[in-house]
Amino acid sequence: MKAAPEREVDRSVSQTVKAQLALRDQILSGRLRPGERISELQAVETTGASRTPVRMALVRLEEEGLLEAIPSGGFMVKAFSERDISDSIELRGTLEGLAARFAAERGVSARELEPLKECLGAIDELLRQVPISVDAFSSYVTLNARFHAVLTELSRSPPLIRQIDRASALPFASPSGFVMAQSALPEAQQILIIGQEHHRVVIDAIENREGARAEAVMREHARLAVRNLRLALRNRTHLDLLPALALIKTATD
Amino acid sequence: MKAAPEREVDRSVSQTVKAQLALRDQILSGRLRPGERISELQAVETTGASRTPVRMALVRLEEEGLLEAIPSGGFMVKAFSERDISDSIELRGTLEGLAARFAAERGVSARELEPLKECLGAIDELLRQVPISVDAFSSYVTLNARFHAVLTELSRSPPLIRQIDRASALPFASPSGFVMAQSALPEAQQILIIGQEHHRVVIDAIENREGARAEAVMREHARLAVRNLRLALRNRTHLDLLPALALIKTATD
DNA sequence: AAATCAATTTATGTATACAGATTTAACCAC
DNA sequence: GTGGTTAAATCTGTATACATAAATTGATTT
């Protein structure tokens, strides 16, 4: 047995992934400002990887939607308007609606539906305690993400799953993007309860093979996230809980 | 003025783009078989670019959906089932439906609607001649692509436009993916006429700000492409007109 | 004869060096 | 003082060299 490795380069993950994670963190935390060119050299210094993996990471982040290619070369951080974000959420809702419809129309066995119902039960448990603690909010985010992921899988459509994953990659478009931001707001509890009702309805619709109903409720479910977005932007008290806030371009720009 | 450049490297387009185009062509033409690993070295030889741009192109083609990453490293050509393809088309239809709804709900000026109506008129002109010539089919493909592109733009939603572009990148999911394949079939003319009716209706719906109608008709419009797909696969007489046929995995595999 | 192990070959991931292009800054002229 | 031009510095795109890991093939043993 050798001693612990001297240099902690962490060979388990590739340099490319490491650079991608580091850069994404820098973007979402606002250290890299929207509109400004990302210097590869600087990225090399901050991420520790060399230029090749950094370049790779930049390409991936562009495809992910966080970066924009500059015609003359290189990349810059993309800026998003409030409209862009709400459209991205509506987009995700539309895709999840399609997934729910596929699941309903194509049929899902009771066994396959079980993980979804487990999520439902766990969230029910969370919402039983009033008022909802910050920890409970955090658990909700995890369970909600799981619910959406499982539901997406139930469509059994690889192309659709792929697109939903891409649409949810933008942090502010993901299912729980703005839940935490309003954990201290009085409306929060109501919104969570309504969201959970949507979860309940979509399961029921899938069980009864009601495609249109399943689709409609998932679309409406996403609009709850749009409401969360609006709430969060109007009540700027807990914006520190939000990543990716730095990407939103305000009207003053 | 210098004489014509000795070496024809074509510096106007980057090596990365050149490699991407060359590889995509190889994939769609079937020279690279689904499932088999793509050798970077071999790609370097066939594309003429060096390893770095080839690697870049491979990453982009993966994001595009034509390639799949191999866990142990490298990429392989993805294989698609008939279900995958019809789902991709339905997916595109859903997104275009959303774009049409956005356009209708948010309002489009008469001037902005003009390019769309020009396309409509041009296609009307094409369909007037019976039977429809192969050239007319070809023109239809161009005009149809333009119609869909313009309609997408009318949503005025950059995130949505981006996603539609991604969804249409798969050649068999693009709006005119299977039109040419059945240019010799008797049903072809009818399908084109029906498709044109959809075009007419969606314009009318947008003009009258009927969001639900605009969305529904674009979804149905995409299902026409699914029908084209089925027709093309059943009547395998003109499959040579189809790119990307090599990617479809048959039941015998 | 078949299976397993080892060795060799090849492939990918990474780093770095180099060239062309772009941008910025400084200086000069008007 | 301002604007334009030129030069320098930096940055991206590309090529290639190197190291590590994986896969395949051959040989040996059971």
What are the main properties of this structure?
homodimer; 253 residues; mainly alpha; Arc Repressor Mutant, subunit A; Four Helix Bundle (Hemerythrin (Met), subunit A); 2 domains; two-stranded antiparallel ribbon; 62% helix; DNA-binding
Count of structural domains of chain A:
2
- Helical stretch tally of chain A: 9
Order of SSEs of chain A: HHHEEHHHHHH
Radius of gyration of chain A: 20 Å
Residue share in β-strands of chain A: under 5%
Largest sheet of chain A: 2 strands, antiparallel
The overall strand count of chain A is 2
- For this structure, the quaternary state is homodimer
- What's the CATH H-level homologous superfamily of the largest domain in chain A? GntR ligand-binding domain-like
Could you list the spans of chain A in which at least 5 consecutive residues all have pLDDT below 50? 1-11
Please report the first level of CATH classification, the CATH class of the largest domain in chain A.
Mainly Alpha
The CATH topology of the largest domain in chain A turns out to be Four Helix Bundle (Hemerythrin (Met), subunit A)
Write the layout of secondary structure elements.
The structure is a homodimer of 253-residue chains.
Chain A: H1 15-28, H2 40-47, H3 51-64, E1 67-69, E2 75-77, H4 82-106, H5 110-128, H6 134-154, H7 158-169, H8 187-207, H9 211-234
Antiparallel strand pairs in A: 1-2
Helix pairs in contact in A: 1-2, 1-3, 4-6, 4-7, 4-8, 4-9, 5-6, 5-8, 8-9
Chain A binds a DNA duplex (30 and 30 nucleotides) through residues 11, 14-16, 37, 39-41, 49-53, 55-56, 72-74.
